[in-house]
């Protein structure tokens, strides 16, 4: 009996040692926009942050971006729409050019052609995404001052209501963090391209909406190109398949100790 019990215990221990950790779910995320997404490689940061979490979903990304592009450019180009129709995506992130959505908050500007085209294009992308089973997030941008930011956020919320999408107010979080850390550089030029710290705040904000949970501080390995403004983009290929960017890869590591203030900035105000 003792030998039988011992053998059974050894078999149980061997089974536990050989058991694999449960597989983490994978969410496929498409991002459509311009340099506010590709500067510092927001898709790569999303994948890295998700991978570093102890559990929760892993992320795969497909990114369609061009410098200064409005969403209507991507709709007319057709590369992103074909990918939406042919592949499975769980989440689609739409990011409009710079301060364009501020026009929707203005009674005198909302009837202008570029403003009307933006709303129409948001509706088209949102309808197509939902037809193919994807959630739609609208990634907010940031303006040069508080008044501009307020109009941007009002415009974003309006478009979200019109398209049944979820607004992601990353610009508001960046502005709040800048007010509390005036010595920190969050924007690198007059076009308000984000610094790496700013991109990490946006990443954590977006991750929360995609994964349905806040990110936890963990060591990050950034094994993708941290792209500067003006990087060469392919008009018909997703960012992830742009071989010309491989020469820009300089893997770096970020310590978990660097992240808590940035992750806290991504959390909604109480």
Short recap of the structure:
This protein is of the alpha/beta class and 270 residues long.
Please provide a written account of the structure.
The protein has 270 residues and is α/β, with parallel strands linked by helices. The chain has one domain (25-265): 3-Layer(aba) Sandwich (Rossmann fold), CATH 3.40.50. The chain contains ten helices and seven strands. The strands form two sheets. Strands 2-1-3-4-5 form a five-stranded parallel β-sheet, sandwiched between helices. The longest helix has 19 residues, at 113-131.
Span of the ends, CA to CA: 61 Å
* H/E topology pattern: HEHHEHHEHEHEHHEEH
Strand order of the largest sheet: 2-1-3-4-5
Give the % helix. 40-55%
CATH architecture: 3-Layer(aba) Sandwich
Q: Hey, roughly how much beta strand do the residues contain?
A: 5-15%
Radius of gyration: 21 Å
Total domain count: 1
Global geometry: globular
CATH topology: Rossmann fold
Low-confidence parts: 1-19
CATH domain class name: Alpha Beta
The major pleated sheet works out as: 5 strands, parallel
Task: Tell me the layout of helices and strands.
Blueprint: H1 2-18, E1 26-33, H2 35-38, H3 42-52, E2 58-65, H4 71-77, H5 79-86, E3 91-94, H6 113-131, E4 135-139, H7 146-163, E5 166-168, H8 170-180, H9 196-211, E6 220-222, E7 252-254, H10 260-265
Parallel strand pairs: 1-2, 1-3, 3-4, 4-5
Antiparallel strand pairs: 6-7
Helix pairs in contact: 3-9, 8-9
